[in-house]
Structures are given as C-alpha cells and as structure tokens.
Design a protein that fits this description.
Region (Disordered): 402-422
Strand content: 25-35%
Protein name: Glucanase
Number of domains: 1
EC number: 3.2.1.-
Helix content: 10-25%
Family: Belongs to the glycosyl hydrolase 7 (cellulase C) family.
Largest sheet: 10 strands, mixed
Number of helices: 7
Catalytic activity: Hydrolysis of (1->4)-beta-D-glucosidic linkages in cellulose and cellotetraose, releasing cellobiose from the non-reducing ends of the chains; Endohydrolysis of (1->4)-beta-D-glucosidic linkages in cellulose, lichenin and cereal beta-D-glucans
Distance between the termini: 35 Å
Low-confidence stretches: 4-16
Number of strands: 33
Radius of gyration: 21 Å
CATH architecture: Distorted Sandwich
Amino acid sequence: MYRAAAATLLFASLVLGQQVGTNTPEKHPSMPIEVCTAPGSCTKENTEVVLDANWRWTHVTTGYTNCYTGSSWNATACPDGETCAANCAIDGADYEKTYGITTPSSGALKLKFVTKNDNGQNVGSRVYLMASADKYRMFNLLNKEFTFDVDVSNLPCGLNGAVYFSEMDEDGGLSRFSGNKAGAKYGTGYCDSQCPQDIKFINGAANVEGWGGDSGDSGAGKYGTCCAEMDIWEANMDATAYTPHVCSVNEQTRCEGADCGAGDDRYSSLCDKDGCDFNSFRLGNQEFYGPEKTVDTTKPFTIVTQFVTDDGTDTGTLKSINRFYVQDGKVIPNSQVVVEGVDPVNNISDEFCTQQKTAFGDNNYFGTLGGMAAMGKSLEKMVLVLSVWDDHAVSMNWLDSNFPNDADPSKPGVSRGRCDPEAGLPAKVEAAHPDASVIYSNIKLGAINSTFAAN
C-alpha cells in the first residue's frame, strides 16, 4: 500500500535506461532457495538476485554524460521517450560498495538502508530473484506455501522491509518491447499495484512526457506501470501487514490518466491500491507483534504464508491466504481479529475483506476487481521482490502509525501501529537511522506444510 516507487530513493545519477553499458560488469549476488515436497524433502535451486534498473547509473551510450540528473532529463539525449531509450545505457552494479547489498551467508541477503559511496549516498534498494542470468524466477503460488526467515531487529519505525510478488514479465519486457535491450539481467520491467509513475522507462521507452520533479531526485511522468501484487511481508520491528492487491489487467501494463489512479482517481485505477490488508495491530491485537511481543522482533523468526485453494489443487480457485510464524522452535498462529463486525478469523478471505472494509468504512475495490479469485489467477505467474525503503508519500504511516493522519485514532482501522507519525519522514529517518538494515534468508517454496519444522 502507498508504496513510493524507486525514484524517491535514489541519489541523483542513478536512473533507468534501456541499452546496456560496459563500464561496470554485472555480477548477480547468489541467493539460493529450496523447493520442498514434504518436511525435510527439499531441493536446492541456485538462484541469484538482480538490482532494479531504476537504481542504476544511466548515461549516453557514447560516453559518461548522465541521461537524468537530479529530477530532470537530459533534453539533448531525451527529447522523447523512444529517442531516449535508444540514446541511454544502464550499467552493471557494484552491489556492496554502491548499494549496501550483501550476502552474509548462503541463502541470506542483507539490504542496508543508507550506503555512503563515491557518488554520495544510496537510499534503499529493490532486487528480484533470478532463475538464470537473464530470466526472473517465476512462481506459481496456488496450493503452495512460501516461507522465509527475517531479521528486522535493526529496522525501526518509518522503514519498510518488504517481500512481495509482482506480476512482471519473465524477461523484464525484453521480448514484448523493442526499445528494451537490457531485460531482466539488468532489472527492467517493474510494475506493482500502485501503478507507479516515477519509473523512468516503461514499455521500453522513457517516461519523459509530462515529467515533473522537485529539487531532489524524485519525479513522475505521464505514464505508470501496473500489475497485480501480493505483499507477503511489509514490516519493520514495530508493525507488519500482508496484503493481496488485484488488478483488472493480467500482465505488466502501462497506464495513463485515470487508469493510473492518482489522487481522486484512486478507485478508477487499473489496480486496487489499498488491497485487503491483515495488520494485527489494526485488527485489534496490539500485543502480537513487536519487541518482546508474541512474535518478538528483537530476534529472527520464520514467516509461513499458505495459498489455499477451494479444492486443494494447483488449479483451484484461491480461497484463503493463511499466515503463521515459527520462532524458537515454536509455531505461532496468526493473531485473530478483534474488531466489531468482523469474524474472529486469522487469515484473509473474501468474507474477511468484505467485513473489514465495512467495519473500517473503506472502499472494497479489492472485491470490485475480483477479490480472491482474481488474486489467484495472478499468483500463477509472479516474480519475487525483496526491498527496503522509506516513504516519501505518507511517511509509512499507513503501516505503523495513525492513518489518515487527521482521523480520530480511536476510530476503527485508523491506528495501525505504535510509531510516531513523524518517525517516517524521509529526512528524519535517513538522518537518524542510516545504518538500519533487514536480513532475509532461507527462502522456501513447497506443498502445504512442507517448508518448515518446529520442535
């Protein structure tokens, strides 16, 4: 929900292009996963991760001149979208030195929030899981469970360590769009349910038309890039939510105008930006998640998410999204809802979403665009995204504080966490917590009840 796209997180010279430069070799960090058929019966896959193209240095193909600086396009190189795509190249990434992305052990990925480097600093990052050097690892999640370990003990209020799936193209749009010469190998083709308009290249062309920016490094163009999204994990050490978001389109799709859902057009968008979220704090259990709570965020734990179909098959209709945790060898069921008008369930279903939206006075755009059945169709072909970010739009208040800010916190659904509403102001959190980080590890996919063990 309310995800600020990458442009607000970059330092001035890191932008997206579509040709391939040769100044820095691209070497994807290794991050193997396991696929399981039964408890203890798992097979290792030698997967790796790739940095999103929006974070990369982009320069003219004939030299080192930036194609984008601050919040402005290079008018000579980029008079229009197609010409810009032909003139501009993206380079390989120095993952550790420039972006603070490291692999502390096999199957583990650490994302540092702020990294000082030769060009100034980098803020946040987003990577995708690769099956090979030039293809994203595609996931079919129906009738499966997805499990990983996380350490958010160094991730304070106002930040978001996010693990989610987006309905991106396997090759990053390389085959669909002739202007894209870089493809998945260089992290192209991003989309999500917010239909972000600050992605600089969409469908193989620069998002130059109508581009406007501030004095920093953010901006937005005429077009956005939309697709369904399943937020497995959006969290810091004080708050968490998991949220399906559906769309009326079934692949990465460029939007413009009302279809992008900006401002008052939010519920005219191609996608459901709100989603149907399960946030334990928002749903009435304020002692379930956090430091020294039931799920103790001062130490690592395992997150298990199950995608249950109506007939128990891989081709059935998505019925519910179940969640539980494992910590210190103990299985911890997800918290139950404690909100008047909502059944005391601990998972996401169409019934839960309808009741929650009514109780909170929210627009059930999730149901309007097809609800769980639509989400299930999108879950057949998803790309895994891992990131850490701060929120230039609403300071992460939708996750860990009161939102909307001017609403009465005692009103059902307004209070989402214990955090100070100002804790997530980008300038404040970047200055106060530059060394913040999140560690993801031990990713597993498998049959229901196959990916975890407990004492």
